[in-house]
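Q: Entry one of two.
A:
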Amino acid sequence: MEPEEQISSPAERQIRPPPLSQHLREFMANPRAWAVLGRNLIPVIGIYGFGWSAALSVFSYWFDGLTALAAIVAAVVLRLLREMPGQSANLLSAMNIIRGLVAWVFLVGIIALPYWIVLIPLHDLLLGPELRRELAGSRALWLTFGSLAVGHFWKAFQSGYDRMSEKELKQRVRWDTYLLVLRAGAMFIMAAHGLAFILVPLMALLLTYMEVWPERVLGAVWGDPSRLWEYDPDEKKKR
């Protein structure tokens, strides 16, 4: 007997985005969308209007996404340590700190894999001498990127991951991390197809779309964005 055809659950069925005309109507009527676009266009205006470094702008996109992802992982690892039997009272013990750091480094290395892969096509921009010179010669840049990282970690630890139910935690973490992973994936696709020279304006448009319509981005890839907590890749393989 032939195996039954595998049928995906409604939560996993990809949702096709609405037509461009609807996007344009919604965007025109949404003042917040214009503000988001204006903020994301600042690097574009800086590069083409004031001679800002393209390498530095691309690095800022990469670093921003990577540190945001690392911060979420750190918050989740802290919750896992608290939930370990008999460990909540000794959370800051040397052994727990070592366990947490090892788990955090390992998980960031795996979950942030798209951010490591994107270094391949963007090698000349993100690992080139121009960027190294700019970073080495400016304390203000170190302060800026350091503040950016601290802000992401502060936001992650204030998001209440440790107080959420398991269902809420899965939904929130997957919502946040999936968007960040897609961001890195988009950078890789653009760079791999020879679009690195216009990556900054493309990223400005992409980040605007992801911020204005995050549910559509997630729905187009993973299905119903309100049911991300149901997604189980291991169960899908077994069917």
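Q: Entry two of two.
A:
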Amino acid sequence: MKKILFTFSLALSVIVWGQKKTTKTNNNLVLYTYQTFNCDNKGYFDAGKYKKEEIDGVYQLLYQFNGALFDNHTVFKLSDVDDVRKNKNIYLQQLEKQYQEKKKELYGIQVINLPEWKNLHQETIRIFENEYQLKKEDLIAYSDPASLKNSQFYGTCKEYIDAVSSPDKQKMYTLWKNFVETKSKNNASPQSVIDKFNAQFNDPRKDDYALIQLVGFGFYNCANESFRPDPNDEGTLYEKFDQIFAKLKQDCDEP
């Protein structure tokens, strides 16, 4: 069943990729169509105030560049560690290719000349550059944990980096144990988490199990959170995007 919404000011946008086109209407208003998660949207903007290319740019920042921008090689198990070590150079080349392609697109985006959109553009560039650097450091760290000593996130995530890069393995084991014990407190079955740790600690590849936890979860999450904006602030920007349009019509599927 379809539900039709028609407003003269704003409607809450839903994050998704979309397609856009424009058509001239009366009174200098231009039709701008785009798609969101479960809605087909028709907005009418004042061509005397905005350019289509600038609205396209804002749309790209809100929808296309608001999410994972690079391939993920998440490490959950020993076979993932082996894969990343074996194919590290290939994955780094792929990452660099994606980075150069997306960088050209992102840096070339035009946005509406208002502080909120210019700030969004700069903030998106900052997140993009940090995500690229984190992905690169993470791929290298499973083969060379000491490389993280040169990480740009060292100041923020020093505890994890010092532990995995120390020649004293006991430092890594101690932090690993503390890290798992902390996680177990938020688990429905804390003892099962501890039992799994004990089994891994007695495994011949315990160093790799430690890296999975301390690099893949500890360091990565610490670094990632250091440059991500508060998700609670994002809703305001989607509302402001709707306010670009003098009229907005949404044709939405019922959830």
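A: Comment on entry two: Confidence is low (pLDDT under 50) at residues 1-19. Residues 115-141 form the longest helix (27 residues).
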